[in-house]
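#help-structures

NK: newbie question. if I give both the sequence and a SMILES, will the prediction place the ligand too? trying with nicotinamide-adenine-dinucleotide
OV: yes, paste both and it writes out the complex. here, I ran yours:
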Amino acid sequence: MSHAPLRFGLIGTGRIGQVHAASIAADPDAELAWIADPFVDGARTVAAAYGGTATDSSDELFASGEVDAILVASPTATHVDLIAQAVDAGIPVLCEKPIDLDIARVDALRAKVAAAGVPVALGFNRRFDPAFAAARARVAAGEIGALEQLTIISRDPSAPPSAYVAVSGGIFRDMTIHDVDMARFFLPEIVEVSAVGTTTFDPGAREHGDFDTAVTTLRAASGAVVTIINSRHSAVGYDQRLEAFGGTGMLQVANAPSSLVSLSTAAAVEAKPPYEQFFLERYAVAYAAELREFIKLARGEASTSPTFEDGRAALVLADAAQRAATERVVVAVDLG
Ligand SMILES: NC(=O)c1ccc[n+]([C@@H]2O[C@H](COP(=O)([O-])OP(=O)(O)OC[C@H]3O[C@@H](n4cnc5c(N)ncnc54)[C@H](O)[C@@H]3O)[C@@H](O)[C@H]2O)c1
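OV: that's the protein plus ligand as C-alpha cells.
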C-alpha cells in the first residue's frame, strides 16, 4: 500500500535535531513540515536546508494541524511535557533519550502513555547500528548457544565541558544509559545492578561530584552477566565495542575503522589514525534506520522501536548504577 509521506514536526535543532532533520529529508516516506526552536535562527536554518515552516514555539507547531508525527530533539528537561502534549494531541512521537533525569517525572507520565495508545518511541539509536543489530540477531538465532556474558565498551573521545557535566545527571544517566539499553536489547530481564565509579583524570567530574570512569555489571534473570565499561575519554578515539560470549561461541563487534589505509614501517605495522568520529558520524546509519522504524510504528505497522517502557527501564538501571557506585551496594531492580 502506498502512503503519503509522514509530515514531521521537529522540536529542537541542536546537535541531534540537525541529524534527525537530515534523516527526515532523506527518507521518501517522511517530510519536514514544521520546525520549532526558541533559538529561531536554528529552526530557520534547518527549514532553509530541508523545507518546512520555522517557529520559535512548539505550541505553534502543535496548533498547526499539519504534523502527523513529532520528533523531540530539545533538551532533556523538556521531554516529559512534550511527550504529554503529543499524546494528548494523539500524535505519534519519537523522543530523544532520556525521557527525563528524574524517575518520579517519568513515572508520573507512565500511566498516561500506557492508556493513550498513541505510539511513543525512544531514541535509543544504537539498537539500529547494523553491527550491533546483526550481533543481537545472531545471538537470537542461536549461533553462540545460550548467552552467558555480554561485554559492552563505550568510551567517548574526550570529556565534556564542566558546564555540561554539571547538568548531565552524572555519567550513569548521561552515558551509561545507552549501554544499559544495549544490554536490555540482548537481555531484557535485568534483575541486579552493581557499579564502580572513579574520577581518574577529569577536573570537571571531580568538581561536580561525578565520575569519569565507570564499570557497571548487570545480572540477568537467566544468570547471564553484562559488564559495561565506560570512560569519558579515550586517546584512541570513540571506542564502541561489544562481545557476546555464549556456550558454543562468541560474537564480537569491533570499532569502525577511521580509514581503510594503514601504514607499515620499521617502527610500526598496520598503523591507522585514531578513531576520529564521535556519535554523529559513528551512528549516522543508525539514526536513519531508527527513523524508518518509527515511521512504521507511527503508521500502525509492526515495529521494533524502543518504547516508553524501554526508556523508563534504562533510567531505572542508570539510577541503580548511580546508587550502587555511590553507596557501594548491590541494587536489586524490578523492571516490571
Ligand atoms: N541519541 C543520541 O545519540 C543523542 C545524542 C545527542 C543528544 N541526545 C539527546 O538529544 C537531546 C538534545 O541534545 P543536543 O545535544 O542536540 O542538545 P543541543 O543543546 O545541541 O540542542 C538543543 C536545541 O533545543 C533547543 N531548545 C531548547 N529549549 C527548547 C524548547 N523548549 N523547545 C524546542 N527547542 C528547544 C535549543 O535552542 C537547541 O537548539 C538531549 O535530550 C540529549 O540527551 C541524544
